[in-house]
Amino acid sequence: MSNRRLPLVAAVYLGTFVALLDISIVNVALPTIQIALGIDFAGLQWVIDAYTLCLSAFMLSAGLIGDRYGRKRSWLAGIGIFVAGSAICAIAPNLPVLLVGRVVQGIAGSLIIPGALSILTQAFPDGRERAGVIGGWASFAAVSLLTGPVVGGILVETAGWQSIFLINLPLGLATIALGAASIVETSHPEHAHLDLVGLALSILWLGALTFGLISAGEKGWGDREAVIALVVGFAGLVAFLAFEARTPRPMLPLGLFRDVRFAVANVASFALGLTSYTSVFLYSMFLQQAQGWSPTQAGLRMAPLFLVQMVVSPAIGRLSQRYGHSALMTSGYLAIGLSMLGMCWVGPSTPYVTIGLLFAVGGLGNALSIPTGSAAAMSFAPRERSGMVSAVINATRQGGTAIGIALLGALMSMRATALLTAHLENAGVANAGAVARAAVSRHDFAADAAMGKDGLRDLFAAAYAGGFHAAMLTAAIVSFVTAGLLAAILAPAEARSARETNQSRQG
């Protein structure tokens, strides 16, 4: 890499650090935010999903904005909006204001995250060099995820939960200064068109589906509001795909999915969001709520998940050149699945060495699958569509995260509530269902008089672990199915493409 491009790489890496740092910091601070603002488990899900939902829904349009109006301009605007959203979160006195700030952050993130890959793709046309830089980008992203839980835990315990958002202000301003001086403006306006109807439909279906899943977790699958929201969500998805197939300038070019490699890469990206990205939320809640660790202790205990990813990611470019994208991606999803399957046997008193080893295996899986999936999708489409392609792969991943937080969170909450209700009924506690819901949803242990807080907490920890197991088992199954899909479809397609390329060169 030439020295003249080092400042550009530094700016893009730092921008990614700012956007992703907020995700891991917020996860470890959730129990503290729950107590400070007096919100229930569904509210915690929305604190995460308000960000990821907007990130996914706006990302496709954001990619087009970068292609049309300039990748540098839109990316720097995203950093500035993200700083503003962080300020709103920091001064939030209640859940609604906090969610407004998270929405602003999500919209900004939709400009930042795909914009980073697009800028790197334009700056590094050589495939081998680009793969190395993207591998480094993924490694730096892992640094943000690694430092987030640790720094976040320390900030929460020493300066209050607001500080986890305030830290974004100086980092964001430094990124703007560095990026403005180093990034070269590029655009391809002939390939970009804002699809406002498609944007509205994407927000409708993803928002309705998320609302339905979170409501089902809180009130049950038979709840009228949940059922209506789920029906609207699926209908909205059908309408969105139908409109995108007919409109001449769609924000989601379905023609890209005719390449089976690109289609499978995006299915895998969605599964990665639903499993691995969602797991950070679940791990943080389990360590603090079931095992009783503080925010700082929970952050430190999640470190192997990100540390292994940080160490391995720089080598991914070389490994991809030697073994191909599909082999690394398949191995990555198998490792993620094994890690989550192992989590089905951990409990409130499980020694940390066991959990730490499972985190390390999951980190290896992330290192193999995240940068490889991104690089694969970028290589399966025309270079001039880099902004759109980057947006699509990231939108499917964040969409998977939004659905994963809602779905796996609902499974964990429902299973934990059912188990705790059964435990309390066996112990002869009156109003067992209401006591269980208060404990699982609001972390409220004051409702029980018969057994005392400590007795209820012990039963709660066991039930919470049972809910965690249900979510982990579901995620493990999704990971294994995705690995099978990659091995059965992407690997042969990639091999055929390589043979055709070699034949055309020889001819």
Structure description:
This is Drug resistance transporter, EmrB/QacA subfamily. It comes from Mesorhizobium muleiense. Keywords: Cell membrane, Membrane, Transmembrane, Transmembrane helix, Transport. The chain has 507 residues and is an all-alpha fold. The chain folds into 2 domains: 3-194 and 251-427 and 453-500, Up-down Bundle (Growth Hormone, Chain: A); 195-250. It has helices at residues 6-37, 41-69, 71-90, 95-123, 127-159, 163-166, 168-182, 196-219, 224-246, 260-290, 295-301, 303-312, 316-323, 325-343, 352-379, 386-426, 432-442, 452-506. Helix 1 runs antiparallel to helix 2, helix 4 (95-123) runs antiparallel to helix 16 and helix 16 runs antiparallel to helix 17 (432-442). 60% of the residues are buried.
Which stretches are poorly predicted, pLDDT < 50 over at least 5 residues? none
Order of helices and strands: HHHHHHHHHHHHHHHHHH
Could you say how many structural domains there are in total? 2
Q: Which CATH-level-2 architecture of the largest domain? A: Up-down Bundle
SSE order and pairing:
Blueprint: H1 6-37, H2 41-69, H3 71-90, H4 95-123, H5 127-159, H6 163-166, H7 168-182, H8 196-219, H9 224-246, H10 260-290, H11 295-301, H12 303-312, H13 316-323, H14 325-343, H15 352-379, H16 386-426, H17 432-442, H18 452-506
Helix pairs in contact: 1-2, 1-4, 1-5, 1-7, 1-10, 1-11, 2-3, 2-4, 2-8, 2-16, 3-4, 3-7, 4-16, 5-11, 5-12, 5-13, 5-15, 8-9, 8-16, 10-15, 10-16, 10-18, 12-15, 13-14, 14-15, 14-18, 15-16, 16-17, 16-18
Task: Give me a quick take on this structure.
InterPro entries: EmrB-like, MFS, MFS_dom, MFS_trans_sf. This protein has helices spanning 6-37, 41-69, 71-90, 95-123, 127-159, 163-166, 168-182, 196-219, 224-246, 260-290, 295-301, 303-312, 316-323, 325-343, 352-379, 386-426, 432-442, 452-506.
